[in-house]
Write a structure and sequence with these properties.
The complex is a heterodimer of chains A (256) and B (301). Chain A has seven helices and 16 strands. With 256 residues, chain A is an alpha/beta fold. In chain A, the strands form three sheets. Chain A has a seven-stranded antiparallel beta sheet with strand order 1-7-4-5-6-3-2. A seven-stranded mixed beta sheet of chain A has the order 11-10-9-8-12-13-16, with helices on both faces. Chain A is globular, with a radius of gyration of 18 Å. Classes of the chains: A alpha/beta (256), B alpha/beta (301).
């Protein structure tokens, strides 16, 4: 983990209010693992904002974000060459178990860290699909990055709240149906990121499949990112845990 | 040029300390931070027993600062001595142990334990945590401020710093009570009671509804209180609240702080002390000030 200054190489609009930004920095590109996050200082704000690593290509590191508040609004206005003050990589990453069948579950912007995970998982692909991606969104314009997952060997199942594309309803409902009706060769392993309700539902599904493990990346308002201010805790079965250092990736069974 | 100051028996190389709760126990930052620009670090507040703290969310940025309701989440005095103290000692920087409590007797019990530990030279008594069950803080009462300070002075010869709240009718009375009780120094001020609301969900920003407000927004409030206290006490004052650059620091020296305390800025840049110290040195050179003590209380009115 280091404090560093980088320049924005490119920032592009991926969809309405959704942006992807990248910069070149070999240290982060080489040291970071899927699930790690970068703590970014944005001009005219006070605290840093955490962003999971979306993708690494060579020495280029990408973050994906949706404009939701002041910080992301200002960040969306950054240009090529803008200076970024970054602390990272931080946090506990996903645990990759090689001999399992990966099932990624994304809710909305929860897609962000799962692409980097898909990149790493793709290296272990033997034959057939690398894994499955269940992608739940409110509206179809939020269905982003799908072609990149397809290139990495993922079969995608889509759920939209309004039913405009794919399954109408919750992504976890779609997942449960598929688990019941499909034959999976290896033991599935769930990797998720999304709203708290979605992860709670995954926890309920996992209770029905005791042999299946699941990890999810959590979000919380954060202070230092280094484990010292104790600001970003979530309630787990073993008490409050810091998202910045004991997470952001937690075993779902440890929380729900 | 002299930048050294003395707080009780504690000699500080530089007049900069970290505010309790914004720097952990220091050791967590050892791979990232150059401690050589710090006079001392102040630890996270410890209590007699370990505490789990308040429900999340516990921290949130607002317009001109940060709201927090951590709630003294800490390993307790035994956990501190066993797991944290050995690591702090290795950092090679002086440290001040912050102590909190739910009752006057809890302070006594914790300080009794710390008094027996050789490596500990200074203790900060946190009489101003806004994130406890009771809504009243000890330093909102001149009587309790005196009582607790006096009872601790009787059991330890170590340097005692008393940290006060700014939320009182007349802070000078509280400051004098702490001095009269035997405090070696005052630390001014802790966070201010505050809250924020998300209008979309109609929920408060903090899980506990309200908490403490820190950062730039409280700087003028804190400056005024340091100035008020500096006029009536003889013991040194550690002043802080929203300092994130050297000019902020100089303001605090001018109104009478002998040492400045960095808080919220540590959460963003744990190396902030270094650039602030450099700024102070340049200011002193430019203004031909040979000793930091000449600057203290130099407000021209």
């Amino acid at each position: 983990m280091k404090l560093l200054r980088v320049n924005v190489k490119k920032i592009e609009k991926v969809a309405k209010d959704i942006y992807r930004l990248n910069f070149t920095f070999p240290y982060i590109a080489k040291r970071s693992l899927p699930g790690h996050f970068l703590h970014v200082r944005i001009i005219h704000t006070i605290l840093r904002r955490p962003f999971s690593i979306n993708k690494v290509e060579g020495n280029d590191v990408f973050i994906l974000f949706k404009v939701r508040g002041k910080g992301t609004h200002i960040l969306s206005g950054y240009k090529k060459g803008s200076s970024l003050d970054i602390l990272g990589p931080l946090g506990r990453p996903f645990t990759i178990e090689r001999n399992t069948f990966p099932i990624l579950v994304a809710g909305g912007m929860g897609i962000a860290p799962l692409l980097y995970l898909a990149q790493k998982l793709n290296r272990f692909r033997k034959k057939g699909y690398t894994g499955w991606l269940f992608f739940g969104v409110k509206k179809k314009n939020e269905l982003i990055l799908r072609s990149e997952f397809v290139k990495l060997g993922f079969r995608i199942f889509v759920a939209t709240q309004d039913g405009s594309v794919g399954f109408k309803g919750m992504v976890t409902e779609l997942l449960e149906r598929k688990l019941k009706s499909s034959q999976i060769q290896a033991l599935p392993r769930i990797y998720a990121c999304g709203p708290k309700d979605m992860i709670y539902n995954l926890g309920e599904i996992l209770k029905k499949y005791p042999s299946v493990e699941g990890e999810a990346s959590w979000e919380q308002f954060m202070g230092c990112g280094l484990g010292i201010c104790l600001g970003c805790v979530i309630a787990t079965k073993r008490g409050y845990k810091r998202v910045c250092t004991e997470g952001p990736v937690f075993n779902i069974k440890d929380v729900f | 040029m002299n930048l050294g100051v003395k707080i009780g028996k504690l000699q500080l190389k530089y007049p900069i300390v970290t505010a309790s709760g914004t720097f952990g126990f220091g050791e967590e930052l050892s791979s990232l931070v150059d401690f050589s620009s710090l006079g001392a670090l102040v630890t996270k507040t410890i209590t007699l027993k370990s505490r789990r703290g308040n429900p999340p969310p516990r921290i949130r940025e607002v317009e001109c600062g940060v709201l927090n309701s951590i709630g003294l989440d800490n390993p307790g005095v035994e956990g501190f001595l066993k797991n944290k103290l050995p690591k702090i000692k290795k950092l090679g920087v002086p440290f001040i142990v912050s102590v909190g409590g739910y009752s006057p007797s809890e302070y006594v019990e914790v300080v009794k334990v710390l008094d027996r530990v050789k490596g500990i030279k200074a203790i900060e008594i946190n009489l101003s945590c806004p994130n406890l069950r009771q809504k009243k803080m000890f330093s909102q009462s001149a009587r309790l401020t005196f009582k607790i300070t006096d009872s601790l002075r009787r059991i330890t010869k170590k340097t005692l710093i008393v940290k006060l709240t700014g939320e009182v009718e007349d802070i000078r009375k509280i400051a004098k009570s702490a001095e009269y009780g035997g405090a070696d120094a005052l630390s001014l001020v802790n966070t201010f009671f505050a809250m924020g609301v998300d209008v979309d969900t109609k929920k408060p920003f903090l899980g506990r509804v309200y908490g403490g407000y820190s950062g730039k927004g409280i700087k003028p409030l804190s400056l005024y209180r340091v100035w008020e206290c500096a006029k009536v006490v003889k013991i040194p004052i550690i002043g802080g609240g929203g300092i994130d650059n050297y000019r902020d620091a100089i303001e605090f020296f001018l109104v009478g702080a002998k040492v400045i305390s960095l808080g919220t800025i540590n959460l963003v840049n744990p190396n902030a002390a270094k650039s602030i110290l450099n700024g102070i040195i340049k200011y002193m050179q430019k203004n031909k000030i040979k000793d930091i003590n000449e600057l203290v209380g130099g407000l021209v009115v």
